[in-house]
Write a structure and sequence with these properties.
Helix content is 46%, strand content 20%. It is α/β, with parallel strands linked by helices. It has a 5-stranded parallel beta sheet, with helices on both faces.
Amino acid sequence: MKKIFRRIAVLAFISSATFLSPVIAAGPTEVVYHIDDAESQGIKGLRNIRNHLDVAPQTKIIVVMHANGVDIMMEGAKDKKNGIEYAPLVGALKSRGVRFEVCEITLKNRNLKKDQFTLDTDFTPSGVVRVADLQYQDHFAYIKP
């Protein structure tokens, strides 16, 4: 009886170790920040990201913007409430490894061109698909400021 119990315990340990090993072996945290409204999320979101990196500098962060969220990345864009320009904040975060992706469906729907955006901008075919893929396929944590 003791041998059977010991074998079951060993098998249970091996199974749990195998199940947990991807979590244990994981690298730095990966996070997608989802912004769809520059006016309500712009400055707050960029500051959240800065604070996030100040505490956990190894975090991989991708910011995905669609709808009115893409306004953050437009040349000369400023926060409407306090007139703060987004570009310097974005540039500082980009230099820390943050990736900023704008939805191309939004460009089409709003009749915008890629050359209206700062050089720090990357593009993705669909913002919502990108957010879903990052969460499901790549296991990114999701934050919406």
